[in-house]
C-alpha cells in the first residue's frame, strides 16, 4: 500500500465518507496479504519507499498472474525479476501497464515520480555476456529511486 492510498482511506474515515468497518476491510491485508499462492508484504512500499521484488522463476503463470493482479490492484509499483519471455507475454496481455526488459528478464511498472538520490551509483560490466545482469541491476536500482550511471 502506498502512503497516499493510506492517507486517502484515513481522510475518508475522518470526513465520514467511509465507515470504520469498511476502512478495516480495506486495510485487512495490511501489512501482509495472503493471496493463497504467496504472502505479499503489502506494507513494504509504505515502510521502505520501494516495492517487494517478486522472483518469477519457479512460479506458474497462474501464480504470477495472481501476484501481479494484487500489486496492480493496490496501485503499488511492481518489480518482477527472472521473468521468462513466456511469462512476459502472458502477463503483458493481461496487464498492458507492465513493461518488459527482455535482456534483464524484468517485468515492471514505473513507480510514482520521486526525488532521485543525490549520489549516483555505477553499474559496470566487462563483457557482453554480463549485460543482462547489469541491466537487471540498473533497472532495480532505478526502481529504488537511484540515479544510475552505466559503464558497459
Please render the helix and strand layout as text:
Elements: H1 3-14, H2 20-26, E1 32-34, E2 39-41, H3 44-48, E3 53-55, H4 61-73, E4 79-81, H5 85-94, E5 99-101, E6 106-108, E7 121-124, H6 131-143, E8 148-151
Parallel strand pairs: 3-4, 7-8
Antiparallel strand pairs: 1-2, 4-6, 5-6
Description:
By secondary structure, the protein is an alpha/beta fold. Helix content is 39%, strand content 17%. A hairpin with a 4-residue loop joins β1 and β2 (39-41). α4 (61-73) crosses α5 (85-94). The longest helix has 13 residues, at 61-73.
- The whole-number mean of residue pLDDT values reads 86
Largest sheet: 4 strands, mixed
User: What is the count of β-strands?
Assistant: 8
Distance between the termini: 36 Å
Number of helices: 6
- What does the overall shape look like? globular
Strand order of the largest sheet: 3-4-6-5
Radius of gyration: 17 Å
Summarize the structure.
This protein is α/β, with parallel strands linked by helices and 152 residues long. The chain has helices spanning 3-14, 20-26, 44-48, 61-73, 85-94, 131-143, and strands spanning 32-34, 39-41, 53-55, 79-81, 99-101, 106-108, 121-124, 148-151. It has a 4-stranded mixed β-sheet, with helices on one face.
